[in-house]
Specification:
The chain is built from six helices and no strands. The protein is mainly alpha-helical and 119 residues long. The radius of gyration is 19 Å and the shape is extended.
């Protein structure tokens, strides 16, 4: 970790974030060998692989907004909970949240400049 974060930059905000992360890792570092943790590289890569598969099957808007579904994609949910969530949150609200959190995405820019949906 120290090697990866050796070049932390000069900005006070960057240094503060790096120092906070260092303190967190020191306090909560894994103490058990051969255990996979949610924030491990292996788990994160697997999770984003799953999102990419879902994106390829379901969406033409890219993976940016779909990243909000990561918790749902890797969790264990019964069909009743999924149905309740889908019935409770209107698509318009999801689209608004994605726009508010992510702003202009690469996919949006492509559509504006090239006038076509991504293939």
């Amino acid at each position: 970790m120290e090697t990866a974060w050796a070049e932390e930059g000069q900005r006070a905000s960057t240094i503060a974030v790096v120092e906070g992360l260092r303190a967190y890792v020191r306090a909560y570092q894994p103490k058990v060998e051969d255990v996979k943790y949610v924030a491990s590289t292996e788990i994160l890569e697997s999770s984003f692989g799953k999102l990419k598969r879902i994106e390829g099957q379901q969406s033409q808007d890219g993976i940016t907004g779909l990243s909000l579904a990561l918790g749902a994609a890797v969790g264990h949910w019964d069909s009743g909970t999924i149905r309740e969530a889908l019935d409770t949150v209107p698509e318009k609200k999801v689209v608004g949240t994605v726009a508010r959190l992510f702003g202009t995405t690469v996919q949006w820019l492509r559509r504006q400049f090239f006038g076509a949906k991504p293939s």
